[in-house]
Design a protein that fits this description.
alpha/beta, Arc Repressor Mutant, subunit A, D-Maltodextrin-Binding Protein, domain 2, eight-stranded mixed β-sheet, two-stranded antiparallel ribbon, 14 strands, about 35% helix, rod-shaped
């Protein structure tokens, strides 16, 4: 029996434990790889037992009969038990052979499933992907995208974070997240981008404003109102794209910057102190006192998927392909007037 100097249980021989120290953790495996028979030999034995004939089994396996016989004997030696009771011209299964014949297929099926599932991580069919997006994408773009991805990629686990544009760019760069969803992203040679959405832009204003009765609105029609915008450093690409739309229409905006980092109530707009340019998806989060009217002539801003150049997550690549399919199904990438923020 074991002593204090030999903590191994009686069934563990010297050298059979695979306990290796890694980062302060020790493995708990108790059998060495050399003591586990090859699955190939188990397949050979099951074929022989199933066909009840070495010749037919060899034909089925496309191996020479002498080689098949050697492999079955090797399996018996490794297990330390006779599986076949052989006579001159035939054989019959021993008790151990019958037991292995009954239980062996379960092991092979489990091994096949293990290999298949493990390989699926390499193809991107299975895995984990982290995705970051901003508040503007939380109204519709991110929820609809994730809903579409769930049906297409049920074996990929997607975790999400709501981040600022700067945080998304930094996190994609350093690998903290796999994919970023950014409106009007700045040019960046270290990132790869794919178009997710070309979103129609419009004006948010009070519902009782006389101009709100129209089906669309021109920028010069609201040029007398201050335009509420975020600070440029919050998203330089989007900020510049908004000003480009004004320039293209010959309008000089009176810009007022947000004084609150996150104001979902859009307090200045509800108070009638300003109007704002926003994407069509923002309609879903508008307070009841506000309406959204599409610009005339139309304008659209890009929302793009960002990944680090040379990324190594196969599941992320598969998700990007599926995201484009979702976007096309939703009609997000169809032309919607002049596009800014490319």
């Amino acid at each position: 029996m074991p002593t204090s100097k030999d903590p191994s249980p009686p069934d563990v021989k010297d050298g059979s434990r695979l306990g290796t120290e890694r980062n302060g953790m020790t493995t708990t495996w108790r059998a060495s790889i050399g003591q586990v028979p090859e699955l190939r030999r188990l397949r050979y034995f099951l074929a022989v037992a199933g066909e009840q004939n070495f010749t037919r089994a060899a034909e089925l396996l496309h191996v020479a009969q002498p080689a098949l016989s050697r492999q079955v004997r090797q399996l018996e030696r490794e297990l330390g038990v006779e599986l076949l009771h052989r006579t001159t011209h035939t054989f019959e299964l021993t008790q151990a052979g019958r037991f292995l014949y009954e239980r062996g297929p379960v092991l092979l099926d489990a091994a096949d499933e293990l290999w298949r599932l493990t390989s699926s991580y390499g193809t991107g069919e299975r895995g984990a992907v982290s995705l970051g997006y901003g508040v503007s994408a939380s109204y519709e773009t991110a929820p609809e995208l994730l809903r579409g991805l769930t049906g297409r990629l049920p074996e990929i686990q997607v975790t999400t974070q709501v981040l600022s544009t700067g945080q998304i760019l930094a996190a994609v760069h350093d690998g903290t997240i796999d994919i970023g969803v950014v409106r009007c992203p700045p040019p960046d040679g270290g990132l790869m981008t794919r178009l997710l959405r070309l979103e129609r832009q419009g004006i948010e204003l009070r519902h009782d404003d006389p101009r709100a009765a129209a089906g669309s609105i021109r920028l010069d029609a609201v040029a007398d109102m201050p335009f509420l915008m975020h600070q440029r450093d919050a998203n330089p690409g989007h900020y510049d794209a908004v000003l480009e739309v004004f320039r293209d229409r010959g309008v000089e905006p009176r810009v007022v910057h947000r004084t609150v980092a996150l104001d979902l109530a859009l307090t200045p707009l509800v108070a009638g102190e300003a109007v704002a340019l926003a994407g069509e998806s923002a309609r879903l989060g508008l307070p009841g006192d506000l309406v959204w009217l599409p610009l005339d002539p139309p304008a659209a801003f890009e929302t793009r998927l960002l990944t680090r150049a040379g990324g190594t997550n196969p599941a992320a690549e598969r998700l990007l392909d599926a995201a484009e399919e979702v976007a096309d199904d939703l009609g997000w990438r169809a032309a919607a007037g002049d596009a800014a923020g490319r």
